[in-house]
Amino acid sequence: MARGVAADNRTASRGGDHNVARLHAAGIAVASAALGARTPGDGGLATVTRNERGFTLLEVMVALVVLSLVALGYLQLFHGSHRLVGDAREWSQAVEYAEDAIERAKLSGPGFTGTPAESLPGGFRREVTSRPWQPGLTLVTVTVFLPGSGRFDLDWLAQDQPAEQRGRVSP
Asked: In the 3-class helix/strand/coil scheme, how is 41-64 assigned residue by residue?
């Protein structure tokens, strides 16, 4: 492409090295071993500048670090969501066990005094207690203990009925 090396644009165009002058004017430097190291300010050629396409190793590594941080954030979010779903499932099961005990207490009638603690599937434990609350009302409390830790209490007020009215329907 270039037949020789000119010191600047003026000598390149006079000496017939038009290709060198054109490349030099476009900002592309042509170097040779005879010139040695020249700086742009001393009238010599500019340093080698190329308009390269692609990414440097540093750019690729920075992009990988940013991508890794984003992926790590998503993994933590996924793990937290998975844990919350498991906890919600456990609490829903505890509520179901408590509601079941309340329904049993309703079916047993006003004389219900509670049941001893019982073990349930999944590592749950349930206690049902009753105590007078106000005249004519009994407070029934169902406590469900969760497998890990925690407990769920469900209260229900039952109306006391005298023994002679239990079998009758109120008008």
From this structure: HHCCCCCCCCCCCCCCHHHHHHHH
